[in-house]
Design goal:
Length: 1263
């Protein structure tokens, strides 16, 4: 039939109207046909009753056959699965015919409406539900609960003319449909010039896949009725006013040179266009974004003419006028009605209106099914067929949202959580363990994302989603009730103006229902009821806890995989046999014969496509063969090494399959395109069903490892070291299983064991809380037990790593800490020996614990030695005193720990316990020095050298019976080792600038060591006459060296200590020179003046320093020695005058000693040392005797000689004052408090000074 070049005339039956803008936008998401199809205008008087030559052919890629003769079924599920990224962003997903049926509902009461409604997030899924097709014409056992409900509640009205048939199947309707079919096929332009558009160009783009490969729902599980799968010619994202809809449409679209995009309609000139037809044409054009509609008029199938009508003019055709605003209001209010009632996610609702009904009803079929199940009126086979598809859609949408979102904000996370929670509630884990387990994994990853740093977890806390829209309806602040009521009333009033519209009662019912629902929705207990799920705002602890809950629930589903697999295989076999029998029976009853007027289509495929498919299949087979070979080779090698049982080899094979799949997954994410990831997922789902068990288990255990590691870091910061250690051990076991399956993953065992060492060490630092720590470690939770039970299945006795259980013992905890650090270092060497940063950090921590443990052993040995020496009464107290003064600090260790450490020593029973502890201390310090030396940590290395010097000083004072050498010589040997370590510490530091505090500590320790050794050599040396001079020289050198280290002029925390020690050193040097004078001089002429002056100078320096510190006891000893020196010089002097001079100098020293007794009064109250009090008491009595002896000797000498100054009377008065002063008798003096005696001598010194002051003027007057 030839084309006509005449222009189609415009329709003249359009009434006057104002231009009303309708906001409509259509975006084609997917097209399965060529758009537009070339239009062939028919000539006048063409007989449409005759079929065209191309009638019902499918090779023209026009989609006419599908548009006219295929039923869409439950198409919303297929559309939603094709575009999961749109679910939640659009308001409605459905077939275009359902939208038109709803919007035309208020204009007629004769039409029946039956739709299934599902709510997924903020999106409604609408599907036509043919009661006759799915219930009344099926077996009695299918959906018995719904059939019973319909018979009892719907058909019980008893009206004979009550029809529930949704489609008009009358003879006239069928003839009209056939006529339209022939017309459309006639309108196809028969030309081979235009090649069809390749299918690959129209294919829907694949969505990106990120993260691990997870199972996908099976095709038959995605829709309620798999047999009615329907792919629309076009999927369109249609925005109508403020309503967004994802729809499927099969409307043919034609085009030509002058009219590039038109829709064709066939109309009988004898029948005018009514309102319903006008709305139908108008909505079809809006949905497909078609600007014009071409009307072909006929009389009894004979073409008469063509008219063209613009889409915006369709509402104003004569006798079929309608208001676009009314249609918009109807759409808005019906959508509001459905959203206000269908509020439960995952529930199935039935929107029903019978013919001639005035009310539209919405039933909750899920609740109805649950009630019948509880009443045992329906079994497993009669459950709702929509439950599983809805759950699968929830899973698909949530997984797509998780994988495609560039940033998971709290709002998006809350939406994903709500979707998956509903999915888990709907799906029985016994039947669908893959999807349920995968949902639990996604939820766990949602709370604790992969790649997060356990030490510093950072979560997105922003509240604003810039690029994404919530899949749930947002709460609005304004009150929408008044607007909805106004719109509905406008619709009702406008429809009431026309008497021919009888559907006002239905829209009135919707209006009344919305009024009630708005009041309930806006006011619930005085507050607005929330609609959207709350954003995911939880802390680290709650995130870890919830993540572990989902991991445990996912692991609990793993046991259902095998049973589900067997059941699925059996059902597949039975189904395949039944289908084969039905196919054979059908072929026998219906032989394939040619039918008249029906062309036999010849299948055609492109050679290029076939070649590509063949290459792909061959490549796939080759890959499978290579995978099997690799698996076999790996397994055989594994059998040679381990020689495990057959069951374990089978398990290893399964693990290798998962490992190969994991490697393919990682490569696919980086190198292969997105379709490769989907192929892998499909391969998992179909060919290796059992491997999903291992794959998902590994994902869950890997997530558990990360969660426990994050938990451990959280507990460590909170100082819950028992819980931290328990979490670390769980993470280690989880990662051990993962590494057993997938050896390519980088092990984090070193980090975990390093933190375990920190926990052990911190337990010793907070010893008061040790009972709480042990209670935390021994606490068992149900979640941990479930995970641990799964771990035990894969960990044999040989595979279990050694994990130390903490006990209430300081030594055990510190040794365990060192052991953990050493294991962590071994792991670093195995995994990545070049990771110097990790090794250095672990070595520093190990060296620190070694240092602390060495000091503990040293303090315990000191206490044990003190106890041992206290038991031996035959030993001198000097040795005990030297040990007590060898170290500046004393350990505060529980006796129970010492006893425990003592009981553990069993190697040499004859060796003293303190010696064993000392050797352990030495070993720990040496290892600590080695660790810090390896990482070149100079500050800590200097600290260790300082502690080693302290140990050598302690070891020098340990007395061992088997040591035959001189004890003082042994002390000197160990002290030289101490000096060497102190010098190493200073050499490592370099100068005081590097670490002033540590430099001062080393100086103090070195000064203490030299001073102590000098005291030991000076006081307890047993050298003979030949070596005495050498020893004396050594003593003097040590004292001078110690004095040089005492920087008492520098202001600091040790200034007082340095000053006191300098005073003692000056006293020791002066005493040394005094001792030399006494041993070598027999006459005053033989006394070396230099030595004497040096001795006096040292005594004077010591007195000044001790006087400045108000040290009563040592100051008094210095004064006594100075008095003794003057008495010694008096004894050596041959002349009376010289003797009197020296004795008067001694008396002057006594009279200037008043400050000593005042210091004793001020400081003695805070002194608790009884030994010091006794010595001070004795020194006071000695001072009194020396004072009296000096006065008595002076009186004798002055009476026998010349006394020009009349001093004898003064001395007599003084001597009389010392004898007549009020103090207790000698027998009571031994028990007199030191304070009273000091007060007595202070008063006496004041009295003597007064006598001296009064005598001097009197003597001058007499002269």
């Amino acid at each position: 039939m030839a084309d006509s070049a005449e222009e189609i005339e415009l329709c003249q039956n359009i009434g006057p109207h104002e231009l009303v803008e309708v906001k409509s936008k259509a975006v084609v998401k997917f097209s399965a046909v060529q758009v537009p199809v070339s239009f062939n205008r028919l000539q006048c008087n063409t007989n449409l009753n005759l079929p065209p030559s191309n009638w019902l052919t499918t090779s023209n890629n026009s989609g006419l056959h599908q548009a006219l003769y295929q039923s869409p079924g439950f198409a919303s599920f297929s559309i939603a699965h094709m575009f999961p990224d749109c679910v939640g962003e659009v308001d409605v997903v459905t077939d275009a015919e359902n939208i038109k049926r709803l919007l035309k509902m208020p204009y007629t009461s004769k039409s029946a409406v039956s739709m299934i409604v599902h709510k997924v997030g903020n999106t409604l899924l609408l599907d036509e539900f043919d009661i006759q097709k799915y219930l009344l014409r099926k077996a009695d056992d299918d959906w018995k609960w719904l059939r019973t409900f319909i018979l009892e509640h719907i058909l019980a009205y008893g009206e004979k003319d009550h029809s529930f048939c949704l489609k008009d199947k009358s003879r006239e309707a069928l003839q009209t449909k056939n006529l339209l079919s022939k017309f459309l096929y006639y309108s196809l332009k028969q030309s081979g010039a235009e090649a069809p558009e390749p299918e690959t160009q129209r294919a829907r783009p694949a969505l990106p896949i990120t993260g691990p490969v997870l199972p996908e729902p099976k095709v038959e599980e995605n829709v309620p009725d798999p047999k009615s799968s329907h792919v629309f010619n076009r999927n369109v994202l249609w925005t109508f006013e403020d309503i967004r809809m994802l729809i499927g449409t099969d409307m043919p679209i034609f085009g030509g040179p002058n009219r590039p995009c038109i829709s064709l309609r066939l109309r009988d000139m004898a029948k005018p266009i009514n309102v319903l037809t006008g709305i139908d044409y108008w909505l079809d054009n809006l949905m497909c974004n078609v600007p014009e509609v071409v009307m072909c008029y006929h009389i009894d199938g004979i073409v008469q003419k063509y008219e063209i009508i613009k889409t915006e003019d369709l509402p104003y055709l004569e006798n079929s006028q309608f208001s676009p605003q009314v249609v918009r209001n109807v759409a808005q209010n019906i959508l509001a009605f459905l959203k206000a009632n269908a509020t439960k996610a995952g529930h199935t609702y039935w929107l029903f209106k019978g013919r001639n009904d005035d009310v539209v009803k919405l039933y909750d079929l899920t609740t109805l099914c649950q009630k019948d199940t509880e009443a045992n009126r329906c079994d497993e086979k009669q459950e709702s067929p929509f439950t599983v598809p809805v759950a699968m859609l929830l899973y698909t949408v949530a997984r797509n949202m998780k994988n495609t979102a560039t940033q998971i904000t709290p709002k998006i996370a809350g939406n994903i959580k709500a979707l998956l929670d509903n999915c888990i509630k709907l799906l029985p884990k016994e039947k669908y363990p893959q999807i349920v387990t995968s949902s639990h994994y996604i939820l766990s990853d949602l709370h604790l994302p992969a790649g997060i740093d356990p030490k510093a977890p950072k979560f997105d806390t922003s509240d604003f989603d810039s690029d994404t829209q919530s899949v749930y309806e947002e709460d609005e602040d304004e009150d929408l009730g008044s607007d909805d009521d106004f719109n509905l009333n406008d619709v009702h009033n406008e429809l009431s103006e026309s008497a021919e519209h009888s559907g006002k009662v239905a829209i009135k019912q919707i209006c009344d229902t919305l009024k009630e629902l708005n009041l309930e929705a806006h006011m619930k207990n005085g507050k607005r009821a929330p609609r959207a799920p709350s954003p995911l705002h939880v802390g680290v602890e709650d995130r870890c806890r919830i993540s572990l809950e989902h991991i445990s629930a996912g692991i609990a589903c793993l046991k259902f995989f095998n049973s589900s697999e067997e059941k699925f295989i059996k059902e597949s076999e039975v189904r395949a046999k039944d289908e084969e029998k039905q196919r054979i029976l059908y072929e026998e009853q219906n032989p394939n014969m040619a039918k008249p007027f029906k062309p036999i289509p010849l299948p055609y495929e492109s050679l290029t496509k076939q070649t590509l498919n063949g290459m792909t299949e061959a490549q796939t087979k080759l890959d499978d063969i290579l995978v099997v070979k690799n698996q076999t080779a790996a397994l055989s090698e594994k059998e040679k090494k381990s020689k495990k049982s057959k069951a374990k080899r089978n398990k290893g094979k399964e693990l290798k399959e998962c490992q190969t799949t994991k490697a393919e997954e990682n490569q696919g994410q980086v190198q292969q395109p997105i379709t490769e990831d989907k192929r892998i997922a499909t391969k998992f789902n179909t060919q290796h069903f059992g491997s999903w068990n291992v794959h998902l288990k590994l994902l869950l255990l890997e997530k558990a490892c990360l969660t426990y590691a994050t938990y451990a870091e959280f507990y460590y910061v909170e100082q819950k070291y028992g819980s931290c250690l328990k979490a670390i051990y769980m993470a280690c076991r989880c990662q051990q299983v993962v590494l057993k399956y997938l050896s390519g993953i980088v092990s984090q065992k070193s980090c975990l064991l390093g933190r375990a060492g920190d926990c052990f060490f911190q337990m010793t630092k907070n010893w008061d809380e040790i009972d709480n720590y042990l209670e935390q470690f021994n606490e068992e939770t149900e979640i941990a037990q479930n995970i641990n039970n799964e771990l035990v299945k894969d960990l044999d006795g040989e595979d279990l790593i050694e994990l130390i259980t903490p006990v209430a013992n300081i030594e055990h905890l510190m040794v365990s800490s060192c052991k953990s650090y050493e294991n962590a270092l071994a792991c670093v060497d195995e995994v990545n020996a070049d990771d110097e940063d990790a090794k250095s950090e672990l070595l520093r921590r190990l060296g620190n614990v070694r240092n602390e443990l060495g000091l503990k052993y040293m303090y315990w040995a000191q206490e044990e030695y003190a106890k041992e020496m206290a038991k031996k009464s035959d030993k001198s107290s000097n040795e005990s005193d030297s040990i007590e003064t060898s170290l500046t600090g004393n350990s505060q260790t529980d006796e129970k720990e010492i006893k425990t450490a003592k009981d553990k020593e069993s190697s040499k029973p004859e060796e003293p316990v303190y010696m064993k502890l000392a050797m352990k201390s030495y070993d720990c310090l040496i290892r600590g020095i080695s660790a810090f030396n390896e990482v070149q940590d100079n500050v800590n290395l200097a600290f260790l050298y300082c502690n080693m010097g302290r140990f050598m000083r302690f070891r020098a004072h340990l007395y061992l019976p088997e040591e035959n050498i001189d004890f003082v010589h042994k002390q000197k040997m160990f002290y030289n080792e101490a000096f060497l370590n102190y010098e190493k510490a200073k050499e490592v530091l370099g100068s005081r600038k590097s670490s002033p505090e540590l430099w001062d500590l080393v100086n103090w320790e070195l000064s203490t060591a030299t001073f102590t050794l000098a005291k030991q050599l000076q006081d307890f040396s047993t050298a003979d006459e030949a070596t005495r001079a050498e020893v004396e020289k050594q003593v003097l050198d040590l004292l001078q060296k110690s004095l040089k280290l005492c920087d008492y002029k520098q202001i600091g925390s040790r200034q007082v200590l340095y000053t006191y020690r300098a005073g003692l050193i000056h006293k020791r040097i002066a005493s040394f020179h005094y001792s030399q004078l006494r041993n070598s001089c027999t006459d005053i002429s033989t006394v070396p003046k230099a030595t004497l002056q040096l001795c006096k100078h040292q005594y004077e320096l010591a007195a000044n320093l001790l006087d400045g510190l108000s040290e009563a006891s040592d100051y008094l000893v210095v004064q006594l020695e100075r008095i003794s020196l003057q008495e010694f010089l008096a004894d050596l002097s041959p002349h009376i005058s010289q003797k009197i001079k020296h004795l008067q100098a001694a008396l002057s020293l006594c009279l200037r000693s008043k400050a000593v007794f005042e210091y004793a009064l001020n400081t003695n109250n805070s002194t608790d040392n009884n030994t010091s009090n006794d010595e001070l008491y004795k020194h006071m009595l000695l001072f009194e005797s020396r004072l009296q002896n000096t006065l008595k000797t002076l009186i004798k000498m002055l009476l026998n000689g010349k006394d020009p100054k009349k001093l004898v009377e003064l001395y007599k008065k003084m001597y009389m004052a010392t004898l007549t002063s009020k103090r207790p008798a000698m027998g009571e003096q031994e028990h007199m408090p030191v304070e009273e005696l000091a007060q007595h001598f202070a008063t006496l010194m004041e009295r003597l000074n007064e006598l001296e002051q009064t005598h001097i003027p009197n003597a001058a007057e007499k002269l």
